[in-house]
Specification:
Structural class of chain A: mainly alpha
Largest sheet of chain B: none
Helix content of chain A: over 70%
Oligomer: heterotrimer
Distance between the termini of chain B: 21 Å
CATH superfamily of the largest domain in chain A: MetI-like
Order of helices and strands of chain B: HHHHHHHHHHHH
CATH architecture of the largest domain in chain A: Orthogonal Bundle
Number of strands of chain B: 0
CATH topology of chain B: MetI-like fold
Order of helices and strands of chain A: HHEEHHHHHHHHHHH
Chains: A mainly alpha (about 300), B mainly alpha (about 270), C alpha/beta (about 400)
Number of domains of chain A: 2
Shape of chain A: flat
Chain lengths: ~300, ~270, ~400
Amino acid sequence: MATTTIDPVNVRGGLRRRLSRVLYQHPRLRLALLLGGPIVWLLVAYVGSLVALLVTSLYHYQTDPTGLVPRLVTSPSTTNYQRVLDAGVYRTVAFRTIGAALSVTVIDLLIALPVAFYMAKIARPWARRALVVAVTMPLWAGYLVKGYAWRAMLDPAGGVLHEVFGHSPGFGLSGTVVTLSYLWLPYMIIPIYAGLERLPNSLLEASTDLGAKAGRTFARIVLPQLRPSIVAGSIFTFALTLGDFYMAQIVGGTTQFIGNIVYREFSANLPFAAAYATLPIVVMIVYLALARSSGALEEL
Amino acid sequence: MYMSRAARYVLATFTTLVLLVLYFPILYIARLSINKARSYAWPPQGFTLQWWRAASHATGPRDALFRSLETALLASAIALVLGTLASFALTRYRFFGHNAVSFIAVLPIALPGIVTGIALNSGYHRVGINLSLFTLVVAHATFCIVIVYNNVAARLRRLAPSLEEASADLGADIFQTFGYITFPLMRSALLAGGLLAFALSFDEIVVTTFTAGSGFETLPLWIFNNMFRPNNLPLVNVVATVVVVLSIIPVYLAQRLSDGALGASGR
Amino acid sequence: MKHANRLAVLAVALVLVAAACGSSSKSTTGGGSTSTKPTGQQTLGAGEGSVSILAWPGYAENGSNDPKIDWVKPFTAATGCKATVKYFGTSDEAFNLFKTGQYDVVSSSGDATLRMVADQDAAVINTSLLTNWNDLDPLLKVKPWNSVDGVVYGVPHGWGANLLMYNKNVVKPAPDSWGSVFDANSPYKGKITGYDSPIYIADGALYLMKTKPDLGIKDPYALDDTQFQAVVDLMKVQRPLIGEYWSDYLKEQDAFIKGSLVLGTTWQITTNGVQADKTAPPVAAIIPKEGSTAWSDSWMIDAKAKHPNCAYMWINWITKPDIQAQVAEYFGEAPANLKACTLTVDKNHCATYHAGDAAFYGQLSYWKTPTAKCLDGRTNVTCKDYAAWTAAWDTIKG
């Protein structure tokens, strides 16, 4: 392959050749050119904003008895963090949200594993393609619309689940967990499927040949190999749940998540919203640090 | 292979069930788009095409669809360039800060949307940038970079460096090697990453809520604003149905061109 | 090593950001009142060719969803002001968006207006430039939620009361008091609803104002520490009774139609929606004996509006009798311009919504932004401001 050294479209070959040589001889320059754009973008647009948010979280509003609106005090203080720690409600909501994120992740994992396994290792090639399409398509159907569809299904009075199966979890925490598990399921199936597809069949056959039953092969061979894919999927399901607030509004009844409070306080008291938002940031950074050791960050 | 017939049968049934659950809400919406009653109540009542007729006259959802396409195209184009550059830098070079850079690239997708949203929103305000298409595209591109990056990086890692070395040995310069060797080999990964980024941007609402400018209603925002209006709720059902049907095009493209690679897998 | 690298990157970012914020951070100042009475813009010049409108969904329809529902395009045709519209979902959102200075004109509810004035975002309105000012309901003009010390900042648009709706099949005997939604032993536990916003705390305050005179509440929006604590405790008693809070009326309407909710605060439009549905159980909506809270929306102009003339033209347009009739019927509210009442398609519209009904007004406490300076005139205590109400709402929802 690639035996040609003639470039048919090359008009300014001389200059390009020279440039190529310079680049070839200076790997650092090459690196700088490659990395410059992305790094400036991420630092300025993203990390900059995050840091600005952290700075804002150190501001606070002070009640002004003479004025109509509170005064913004910009000298750094831990007032907002104090409030997060002191008022029990912020802890309760944090635990509820993290609990929901973990539940959604576990539910999705339990559903995704067998489905992805069937897709990658049992289904015929044509069926495999069809299944990948079938799993991806729902992602296009609109997150809010699907949320409302679930509202219609979960409704304790006249919803599909109640009418057809005689039972519905109703609007509340469990309804929200069910809905979120539904919404994020494809994000779990796809990386696991990709991971399984990369797993050579010969490995599984070898295990069988050596006398291992399916369950044992799965636990000893498949699962350890799949870890990065599973962790990658879990980052989606966990992070997406951790930051969600629309579904708590739509199917959550009276449930509120971290996102609902941040959203509400964002309008009323931005410094406090910023302080409370550092909680999911810290949780995710810890999660990512743990995930990183499994090499999952490359699977996202 | 190594599984009993019964086990395969159980897995097939389970997969079928999961697919049914996955599609039921979507089919339900499609059914509601031709429902006589305006509400979501079960069971659906009667048939009517009046919502489809109304939707065909409504310019609101059509404009919103074009805005979403515009945003998603721009954002995924930027993400394709930056993500590809980053993946070359991070797979081909070891340097000080390597890990930090790859970590930061992942952050925008791993941190909850509300965090990204309020961070960018207050960041823009701080430096005095008014919200507009520009701010929205910047926000979307930011969380799309990692999608492209991961797809391309996965491909590059599997690409034998010997091919490129051979090309160089035969006298090709850096650009020729890229044009004749590397690019064709990573094209499908680029496409998969680009499509995924496009899909992510197209349906995004949380970050969008905080970064879209005045009057710039993307499709999810349009849906959000109209879901609460009883007169327009049936239109929302029609629009959602249309989008699902239209999504066959990109999903099919992804299948055909990337040869089944949708996640990180390149095969 | 990994950590060191990450720190290095963060440090770079910090420097970048510090440079960025140092130059442009603007601190908010309190207090908006001045000693001489400001009069606002003196003359109405030619239109600037465009106007940016911030509105509740349904207040500025341009026919994009239903070609028949359109009063924005005719406005542009009549004035040459090309209008862009941004919708908001809550008063808090409106306040934040308006603060950015990107909008010329906003439809603001009473729980946001004073904040906008205090933040010096709102312009004084010269009522002599308003063509419909004299036709607007006197009961809505120059009120505490759209003016400060007699200076007009908001032009009335329309209003509605927060009623008590109940399912007649289930809730027996018919309730006549807000006590029915605060009763810890309510038989309707889990099927009661409340409005999902900090301003809903005022409903509890109104109830205690009438039933616990010892607390000395004079105005549900002016609560000192003791009063506020009592109200918050009441709201916490209510919390387990609530099946769902609502912030979009469609959600409540649907729940009443299906029967998953049977009792709670509502808007007239929601009740109409339920009553119009053939499958719905019979419902009624009343003003309980304690009276009710209510909302009244006003149009306000940005103090630094880029298109002030077009903003005035928009206000003149939206307060015209025929346009008021269209908006009031589409949105489901009482119009501010009473001349609209003869132009509505449903001739009973104004009667249904009690437009101009002074006796009805008397029972209502309109939404106002709670401020530290007590709105009831007390000067010896500090009242809880809106931020405190929001923080309390976090806790009440739990």
